[in-house]
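Re-run with default settings, no changes from the original entry. Doing this only to confirm the output is reproducible before filing.
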Amino acid sequence: MDIGRGLNRYFDALAGTRAPLRDPGVWMPFVIFGLVQGVILLAMAMFTAPWVSPLMVPVMRFLGGEPSLHYPLHLVGFPAAYQRVYLPLVASVGFALWTLAVWKLVDRHTLGAERPHRRLGPLLPHVVVIGVLFVGTSVLVSELASNFVNPKTPAMVARGIVLASVVLVATVQTFLVYAPVALRLRGTNAWDALRAGARYARRNFPATALLIITVLMIHLPLDFLLARADRVAARFSPETILQLMMGSVLLEVITAYILFAGVTELALPREGGLS
């Protein structure tokens, strides 16, 4: 696919995310996962409250050690502690809910509605496999990139490494992101869906990568602040960290919708779509 056509398809995909918003069934899975995260964040933040402390005090000690039980270190270390909960959560519950939204996006699409209907339930184990690979490989690439940055790294070099890691993560996700759509259309297994999705991604790489980079760049400022929670707490207040994390959850509701609605639109053109 040439760059010009890729740009046109990218903008068409973004435009195509507007129509499904009229159907609550499409965007509700994203909202539900946001609410799940919000409840977990509040439980972790208020772990000393009598109604949650018997459960949450041991959990917080396990996630962040003894410092996580004391103010303000509890909030300073909150992003790192929550990350240990978030990664398995998004790879399983989150990806299952997002795939449910993909199912609904395909069903309401003009071309997708022509395909045989499939139930998500029997395919959930395959969804989890795809989710673990999607999240795990992305985290691995990010961690490898972060190893090249240390306190002595010049600022310009550090920014370049961050941007390079965004591009690398986007590249990895490009070859995995069509798998939920392929699973819905083919109804086979995770490995077949991943292969079919990767083949389609190669033919539509510019548009897909641009869509993913857009989502990653929207998150980058908040991710940057949360990675420097100690400085945020010193400059503002420890409670600001919790506010930023809740904002990040809300932002993810929006960007996850944009990503999967856009990908579904890219996967179902009138000619040469994913099959």
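Residues 109 and 142 are 34 Å apart (CA to CA). The mean pLDDT is 89.
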